[in-house]
């Protein structure tokens, strides 16, 4: 592969990055080849790796965006991996302005405290300003997986409590409903028995018919009340469950 | 090389190399100079330069050279402040390490 082929493939591979970034990178590497000279062309190509690798490095650099304060001991891996930097932000750099003087190596220029604060503030700022890097996302995924027993347990517990409460409510409703139905049925039975009894004992029969009617009425009232309660509660209940599920899922995401 | 060069240190080295050229310098030359002191691949420096440029530590300009435009990098005021910060921090850090190494030797 010669330079032209290399650059053509690199351009193709960078087709999904913003045009400005693509042109920057292409110009840089065109310059690079020019400055290396035709006699070093093969060496440069060998040293840059494949166009795929180079495009990967360029894209990794774009995505990285320079997360401040995150790079620590993991070290700079150089080839084909992303890395983070610690560039100080303007605000902090200028707040210590008097300290940067003509004497670039002035150890006296930075008091331990003031520098520490500057660096800290800066790290915070950077972290807030910049979006997450790939490394951060990977860490979060690992954290989620590692903590899964915890939050699965928690979510399961919450779910159990909710289901238990709902079942209790449902049980109460069902009990009232059943009482109502039983009363109505007993009422009907009493009414029928009362009519049958009218033949032998008209007075007792009347009493039974009356009692049956009262029973039936009370049963109907129970059933009616429960129907009203359920009609009023079910939509609210469903909304509540949906909300709860949403919140659970969102909280799960935030914890991660 | 035994020790890794962290991203901050690489930034510092690049800023230092570029700052030595008051009129600015270009990618190939920066790469060669950095490669004289640390082992990095030739493809490593472009993202670093681009990032320093975005962070306004470096500015670029094109200058005609041998019939073509060459992109030059130059350290900005911010970049110079940043470099000074890195350098003073490096001295603090290396002094601490030295004192540990030397103290270790004395005690050992």
Short description:
The complex is a heterodimer of chains A (about 260) and B (about 110). By secondary structure, chain A is mainly α.
Characterize the structure shown.
The complex is a heterodimer of chains A (256) and B (108). By secondary structure, chain A is mostly helical. Helix content of chain A is 76%, strand content 0%. Chain A contains 9 helices and no strands. Chain A has helices at residues 3-13, 19-36, 41-48, 51-64, 90-95, 112-129, 134-146, 148-200, 202-255. The relative contact order of chain A is 0.06. Chain B has helices at 7-19, 27-37, 45-54, 77-107, and strands at 25-26, 58-65, 68-75. Chain B has a single domain, classed as Winged helix-like DNA-binding domain superfamily/Winged helix DNA-binding domain (Arc Repressor Mutant, subunit A), CATH 1.10.10.10. With 108 residues, chain B is an alpha+beta fold. Chain B is built from 4 helices and 3 strands. Chains A and B meet through α2, α3, α4 and α5 of A and α1, α2, α3, β3 and α4 of B.
Topology:
The complex is a heterodimer of chains A (256) and B (108).
Chain A: H1 3-13, H2 19-36, H3 41-48, H4 51-64, H5 90-95, H6 112-129, H7 134-146, H8 148-200, H9 202-255
Chain B: H1 7-19, E1 25-26, H2 27-37, H3 45-54, E2 58-65, E3 68-75, H4 77-107
Antiparallel strand pairs in B: 1-3, 2-3
> Which structural class is indicated by helix and strand composition of chain B?
alpha+beta
Cα-based radius of gyration of chain B, to the nearest Å: 16 Å
Shape of chain B: elongated
Question: How many alpha or pi helices of chain B?
Answer: 4
CATH class call of chain B: Mainly Alpha
Largest sheet of chain B: 3 strands, antiparallel
Helix fraction of chain B by DSSP (H/I, runs of at least 4): 55-70%
Biggest sheet overview of chain A: none
Tally of helical runs of chain A: 9
Secondary-structure class of chain A? mainly alpha
CATH-assigned homologous superfamily of chain B: Winged helix-like DNA-binding domain superfamily/Winged helix DNA-binding domain
Helical residue percent of chain A?
Answer: over 70%
Low-confidence stretches of chain B: none
The gyration radius over C-alpha positions of chain A equals 39 Å
The count of DSSP E runs of length 2 or more, i.e. the number of strands of chain A, is 0
